[in-house]
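Example record

The entry below shows one chain as it appears in the dataset: sequence first, then structure tokens.
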Amino acid sequence: MNDWEEGLRVLMRDGGAAPASRVDLGRVVTDGRRRRRAASGAVAAAVLALVAGAAVALPGWPGGEPVPGASGAADASDAGAGVGGFDPVLVLRLRPGWLPDGVAADPNPSLWAARQSERYADQPATTDFTISLYAPGFVPRFLDPATKADEPAMLLEPADSLGGRPAQWYSEQAHPQRSGLLWQWAPDAYASVEGITPGSAAQDRAVWRHVAEQLVTNARRPVPVPGYVTDTPAGMALIGMDRVFDRTRQRWATVLVLNRYAYVPPPEGRPRPGIEVTLTPGGTAGTVHLADHEDEWTIDPVR
């Protein structure tokens, strides 16, 4: 068992006892419960929906090809040499030392090996911002030559250094009311705070800078999830975790993303290379669904 898998077992258990349910997707194939379909070009990941507490054993499926660029730089020769980024993934390293009055953290942080983010807002959402911490060697998508063309155009302005390291103000050209501060929290490692407040542009900057100055970047805040993954293909590792709202079941679900290399994730709705495992809590039965470019497996129910 490798370190990341053991970390999953520890962090994803609730109460210490191993979940009784274990889904071996390879067995589904040998049992002949296989259906083929022509997938659209947008299908780039494998997706599973399962009951809370299930352990999922994945067959040897590819996780997508590494692509160049600082947001997810990886060469084919790097597969199996470590995916890079924060390790373990399911530990939040940022913790604000100061927040504006009335602002609280969203309970659904986004944790990726390359970048972790936590959103903060007040009740009327007049103040709404996100703090992001990038692992060394990774940069925001709007700065990466490989991805910046797909991101909103940004206006960049020099800012006073933070902790003796470079900093920049930035704002979207199309939506200048949404602004942010980008700085290096460690050598070759970026952090950002961006969003909106009810104040002026100058007041926004004062808030962003105060948040940045008081930000703790060495916190260890484990984030529990309702299941775990085992028997992954060689070189495949957990690279990301997001919470999404399952409109069909009207409840929040946890999405784990596995791949052979880390990358800064694109905005919601865009394809994300790798295998996606969606954990939907609640009930005693559910559906396990695995899809790739041409093949599809379904088990219903899972017990």
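Notes for this example: The chain has a mean pLDDT of 73. Residues 201-213 form the longest helix (13 residues).
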